[in-house]
Amino acid sequence: MEEGTGSTGPSKASANTADGVPASTEVLVIGAGPGGYVAAIRAAQLGLEVTLVEKDAYGGTCLNDGCIPSKALIHGADVAHEATTAEHLGISAEISIDVDRLTDWKDSVVDQLTGGVESLCRAAGVTLVDGHAAFVDDHRARISTDDGEATLSFEYAIVATGSRPIEIPGFEPDGEYLLDSSDALELSTRPDELVVIGAGYIGMELSTAFAKLGTDVTAVEMFDDVLPMYDDDISRVVREQAVEYGVEFRFGERAADWEPADDGVLVTTEDEDGATAQLAADAALVVAGREPATDTANLEALGIELDEDGFVPTDAQGRTVRDHVFAIGDIAGEPMLAHKASYEGEIAAAAIAGQPAALDHEVMPAAVFTDPEVATAGLTRDEAADAGYDPVVGRMPLQANGRALTVEATDGFVRVVADAATERVLGAQIVAPNASELIGEIALALEVSADLSTLAGTVHTHPTLSEAIMEAAADARDEAIHTR
Q1: Is residue 228 included in any domain, yes or no?
Q2: 220, 243, 347, 468: which has the fewest C-beta neighbours closer than 10 Å?
Q3: Would you identify the family this protein belongs to, as annotated (predicted)?
């Protein structure tokens, strides 16, 4: 095989010095997160020879340091909070919280799932390599493992290197005074006071969880409300509930500086007028968002350049400018969601196998696991109008939902957006307990181009939160029974 980008296929004669690395493979997958491992399994199911290279842990950030462990922590915090705040129901309890044991349980959940990922890959016939992969040219990658280095030739490649936390200059996490989200999920003791820098989805999930565990939380946010990517009425519900749990907010301020102080930190914030304030805490949790990890696989060797937002440009099947190289997941653009990465992985695998497949990001649900949860799919009213529709909107407040009353969760709503002319459902926004589960009905409605009459006319179990979807659809048709 030639050395340059004019090479046409994998070589069968690569000399390897690292054990477990094959000389060649049909499909090289770099990264075993929710995009990479799904792509590898699907490609193997489709009869392709697949090698999956992962430098850290199978399951990626989502399974090891994000989605799963954070939801486990949130569950533990919910149990603790409910046990101590039910006196009005005639239930009183005194509890103790062993954060170390909670962390051990969380780790056991993660271990079970990561082991499952490895088992699924092996059962599908995927070759697993623990190491770091970087491209050498069009059809070769250098694999670095604990045993040494090897050259792996490939016919196709799927890059799924994920994302990492954005670092604020001067606030680089050190695991002691300054924490990132991974550090926060590994704490063995509960901090008495915590400054959270950022009130986006990660900041709000963890702020609420720690507040429920008894930590005094102060959240610092440059914007004027929490979850700045959502409509004001959604942000308001989440913020007001967080305040009830004891979270204090400082909006319109940025973290300007910090210093160690009294076995903790002293964080200096600054507003737009230059006024400063100092916040003392045991530690500061820095959650300013995430950025694509596009610099780990040496994409430059393939001539792949990033777009103006720092993502890898791809087509409707995940192909990059090099037809045999695909990019999926967080490096391929917003939204940075695990289920989006998995979906893109299946599409890329199908495309490599020669099957018809294409991405459709219009039906991509998203959820924030705050209290209450937030979930969305499709278009908002404004987005529908910008797209040329004449939108009609139906809304069902949870105050009128029987199930919401029985679980004491009436601060929320379901909003359904449809096209006035055809009544085709265009999207929905849900603020409610288990919104992440409820949004599946909307995603299906969007996928099959259902109209309002289908949602409103489908009998929903009573009493359930899902009835609010039915009522919101009926409200959009001026036919709601339980709201006006």
Answers
A1: yes
A2: 243
A3: Belongs to the class-I pyridine nucleotide-disulfide oxidoreductase family.
- The total number of structural domains in the chain stands at 3
CB 197 within 8 A of CB 284: yes
CA atoms in the 13 A half-sphere facing the CB of 323 = 4
482 part of the active site:
no
CATH of the domain at 199: 3.50.50.60
Residue partners of 223: CB distance under 8 A and separation at least 6: 199, 251, 252
Residue where the block lists tokens 């099957």: 355
DSSP string, 52-106: EEESS-TTHHHHHHSHHHHHHHHHHHHHHHHHHS-GGGT--------HHHHHHHH
| Closest to 28 measured CA to CA, from 120, 123, 150, 111 | 150
How confident is the model over 236-285, as pLDDT tens digits? 999 999 999 999 999 999 999 999 998 899 999 999 999 999 999 999 99
Biggest CA–CA distance in the chain, Å, is: 77
The domain boundary, picked from 234, 254, 288, lies at 288
Q: Report the SS3 class of residue 368.
A: strand
Which residues touch 140 (CB under 8 Å, ≥6 apart)? Answer: 1, 7, 10, 11, 14, 151, 152, 153, 154
CB atoms within 10 A of CB 90: 6
Cβ atoms of 219 and 196 closer than 8 Å? yes
Does residue 310 lie within any of the structural domains? yes
116/262 same-domain check: no
